[in-house]
Every structure is written in C-alpha cells, then in structure tokens.
Amino acid sequence: MSVLDHGPVDPAPVEPGRPPVVSARDVVVAYRTGHGRRAEQVHALKGVSLDIMPGQTLGVVGESGSGKTTLGRVLLGLVRPTSGQVLFDGLPVTGRGTARRLRGRLQVVLQNPDWSLNPTLHVWRSVAEPLAVTGRTARRARREAVADMLVLVGLDPALADRHPHQLSGGQRQRVAIARAMITRPDLIVFDEAVTALDVSVQTQVLNLIRDLQAERGFAALFISHDIAAVRYVSHGLAVTYHGQIVESGPVERFYDRAEHPYTRRLIGAMPTITKPTSTMQTTRPVSRREKDDLP
Ligand SMILES: Nc1ncnc2c1ncn2[C@@H]1O[C@H](COP(=O)(O)OP(=O)(O)OP(=O)(O)O)[C@@H](O)[C@H]1O
C-alpha cells in the first residue's frame, strides 16, 4: 500500500461568511485555430463553474485534453473567458487595473521546474524575482526572504548560491515552489507539479504542499491526471471530461461513491484503493530536509 492510499487531508476550517478566493461562473473558453477556410474553434471549457475557499485545495483530474490546464490559466487571468466570468477576491481577474491589483497574489507551479527557473541565474535570484515585480522589498531583505523560504520548503539555504543544474529534480521543484510562495499568494495553481518527479520524491513534494498550505493558508488548484495524487492533497475534487466538470464534491466521496463512468474508470485504474480509515500520517522529517533528495 502506498502512502497515497491513506485518507484525505483534514478539512481546513472555512470561516462562515468568508467569500471564495476565486470563483468561476459558467466559463467557456474557445480557442481559435487555423486561418481562413481552415479556421475553427476548439472549445476547451464548456461552461465551468467552481469556487475555491481560503485554505482549501480543489483537485482537478481528467484525461489529456479535457481542459485542466486551460482551467488553471483562466483562474490565473492568463486566458480570457470567451463567455462567463472569473472573480478573484470578488473582482474580475482580467481587465483594466487587474495586473497591478493582483501582482504576487496568484502564482503557479508547473510540471517542469526548468520552465520557471532561469538556468543562468543563481537560485536566490529566481526565487526573489517575483518580489522584485511587487517592488516592495529591498535587495538585502530579498536575500533574507529567500533564505527563509528555502528553509520553509525543506532546502538548505546554502543552495541559494547554486545554479538550477546543480540541484536534483526534487530540489528544483522545491525551489519552484519557494518562488511561487515568496509573495505570499492567495491562490497557487499546481499544474502537474509532481508528474515529472520520481515516485518517492513525489510523495515528499505532496507532503510539502500539504504542510505549506496548513502553515500559510493559501487556496490551491491542484491539476493532475493522477487521481491518487489529487486525492492526497485536495479537500474537494472536480473531474473534467471534454471541457466540462462532470463530477465534483468533497474528496472523501471519491473513495467509494464516484458516479460518472469516467471517474469510476480512473479509480478502477489505480493499483490499490483503500478507504480513509484514519487521519493521514505525515511523513515529514522534523528538519524538513530530505536526505534522499540530494543531487
Ligand atoms: N492555445 C491553444 N490553442 C488552441 N487550442 C488549444 C490551446 N490550448 C489548448 N488547446 C486545446 O484545448 C483543449 C484543452 O486543452 P488543455 O491543455 O486545457 O487540456 P488538459 O486537460 O490540460 O490536457 P493535458 O493533460 O494533455 O495537458 C485541447 O483540445 C487542446 O488541444
């Protein structure tokens, strides 16, 4: 039995009356492809609605091409809905004045850390970069903030003076998470953030995400094609299929009561299914440094 077969995360307390961090209402995204007579539209999202509450993770699972990445990008304001609306903190996520208002409050962790870490820069510069964009932190304070952040993600702060290629894949992903966390965002989109990692490192990074969320209280969208990983870090789960959310609800429900045939297929494809019988044990070592995660 893998550690991922344990039960879901403890529900983070949601204060009554607090609004969602991000809401999507009937969001449609149609991409245009081709030109002239060959022009056509691909409907990546076909009327998606969801809310993510502070301190909660919504897991999104679905097959390739079902619209997961588009959903993440639309919540981050990187893709404008063709119709429908995305609200962050109650206000539209795209449009005039939003870039300034949202700076540093929305972050993303991608599948490959190399996509967000500049290979020519020392680690500390890459981690500090989002702080420079918010323009609020002096250089020295930035270095200190980076050191604190590296410790928070379980890395030796001495790694700040290395280049990304001098780190292991797991360490690089921790650096990417540190970079995403440094502005204390309200929402982080994890898009296949553990997919490229070795299985043992995957579990460490999933534990890290859970611990960081418990400590910092950010809301998260956790996208993966791997339902075991999604269940492990999420409070709620949404299943995408052909651009729609075909099933959603609290994560516990996806241990034995999946309704949509596609969800049942996903669960059926998992090697072991164990119902949650106890609170998940954390595997985090006290120091948070993962010895087996060295390059
Ligand atoms: N920029 C784009 N232009 C045109 N079509 C796009 C674009 N981005 C995505 N698509 C299409 O939209 C649909 C949804 O893609 P999306 O990447 O959101 O799905 P996904 O579930 O994240 O897939 P995967 O798991 O393979 O990453 C697919 O049919 C894809 O080909």
UniProtKB/TrEMBL annotation:
Residues 10-19 have a biased composition (Pro residues). The lineage of its organism: Bacteria, Bacillati, Actinomycetota, Actinomycetes, Streptosporangiales. This is ABC transporter domain-containing protein. Residues 22-267 form the ABC transporter domain. PROSITE patterns: ABC_TRANSPORTER_1, ABC_TRANSPORTER_2. GO terms for molecular function: ATP binding; ATP hydrolysis activity. Keywords: ATP-binding, Nucleotide-binding, Transport. The keyword Nucleotide-binding applies. Residues 274-285 have a biased composition (Polar residues). SUPFAM superfamilies: P-loop containing nucleoside triphosphate hydrolases (SSF52540). Residues 1-20, 274-295 are annotated as: Disordered. Belongs to the ABC transporter superfamily. It comes from Acrocarpospora macrocephala. GO terms for biological process: peptide transport; transmembrane transport.
